Amino acid sequence: MEREIAETRKDEIGGMEPVSLVLPSSAEYVVLARLVAGQVGRLAGFGPEDIYDLKLAVTEAVTNVIRHAAVDTYEVEYRVFPRAVEITVTDAGGGFEVAELTGEPDEQGGFGLTVIRNLVDEFVLDSKGDGTRMKMVRRVSEPDNL
After folding, report:
1. 123 Cβ neighbours under 8 A, 6+ residues apart
2. Any idea what the CATH number is for the domain that residue 116 is in?
């Protein structure tokens, strides 16, 4: 699968380099992906509710890989921006037809993608015969003005 590389200046992310994990496709490692998501959320200035949502979105994304991709490993890349986090989950599985997804959960699943879409501000899903890439962007929530 051809990787899309975005050029990002260090001053745009506060001098932090992206963090990338290659994890075994096993449920025991989901907690590691969640822990890193929580930490990058803190670095971006997220509050507890935003961190919870980010961790839940990452959990759903990596669980989808474990359940559906039939791969030994997958990659999670975390990018910290001021007041935002971008997380990309990539696998080298067989992929699927994104256009065939109805957007609604059914007997074959779909709940995870629906949850992710509702938890993040931007969601991009690319899948081809040589893998799948899911990019999620979450921004800091603005406080409610009462």
Report:
1. 116, 117, 134, 135, 136, 137
2. 3.30.565.10
